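To make this tangible, this section ends with a sequence with its structure tokens:
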Amino acid sequence: MLKNPAEVKIFHTKYLLVLAVVALSALILSITACISMSRKKFEGEHRMKIISSPNYRNGKFENLTGTELNLGRSFCSLMKEYLWGKQERVPKSPLPFVRLRSGSFTPVSRGLRVTWLGHSSAVIEIEGLLLILDPVFSTWASPLQGAGPRRFTKEIPLVPEDMPGVDAVIISHDHYDHLDYPTIKKIHHRAARFLVPLGVGAYLEKWGVPGEKISEFDWGEHLDIGGVRITAAPARHFSGRGPANRNQTLWASWIIKGKNFSVYYSGDSSYSPSFKDIGDSYGPFNVTLIETGQYSPYWPEVHMTPEESLQAHIDLRGDVMVPVHWGSFCISFHDWFEPVERLVRAADERKQTVATPVPGERITCGQDLPLKRWWREGRQSLTHKSVPDPEPAGM
């Protein structure tokens, strides 16, 4: 017990300092969250394009197929599973990855190379063009850098400082695990342009991206860059960075089609007839990047099960499937490795080709595919197995 007045004064001073630090931290986190959730209000032609979209009805964007964010069982049941569920949602040991340096990316003038960076981030090198999909380099997929879904590993394959200059950053929708405020602030000067669904550009402008670098798309609209056509296509999902702005921006999948090679990226989507429509109109695809994780019975109409993801790949007339939206963050209640296990099992049964690169590992069209079941080794061993940085592959 403190009896000396000097000790009491020191104790009170330290106590007040701790409270001040906590309050300041909370204030900084709150300000950061507010900035990441806010967007510039579009008016004039931007607003007209949104409200004139056939996909914008009754004051919000809607899916082509009826979709509900149905939590099914009670909120209490969901929270009980979140807090006490028995799933292995986070790896017990460090996961392997390939560390990419600033010189890792060389021009692929005639071919196709795909590099999955983890979750839904990927680099596409196609016929001389360098693109990056949904770059998220932060530790937290959240408005608060310090709370929410945390990345499984501290190290990532590509850091903002080593990101090369890219012809375009392509964003699928505005959720925090796809549109990351700290990442955009760090990399926007390295991108020639940003391709985003309707309304998402307002966030980018608010965060300092010049308006002339932003192109917004409705489903079916496209842009040609260096002989490669990039088209926004339907997805079955939803948008919003907070309850107040649900479905005020559009979400999309993306078709990247060059003269000889093509890629499809699903963004986030549940299963729908749109996959077959896209496959019939734009397929076949050399590579499809299909969301495979973060599904749940609580939200069956906004994410696919692995078996549905494989069917989407088949509908799209894809050659090689790369599962994404797994392996980096826990945003559901399944084991962290369950999506890829279920997928490769279904693919073996249906004789489909699924590439399973570790984050940062290259897939070069026409060369051997990464097929190793590396996530099984990570679960069986507590030693970190790092994968050597490969020599840049040419085409």
Q: What stands out?
A: The first strand starts at residue 56 and ends at 57. The domain at 112-139+155-380 is CATH 3.60.15.10 (Metallo-beta-lactamase; Chain A). The two ends are 74 Å apart (CA to CA).
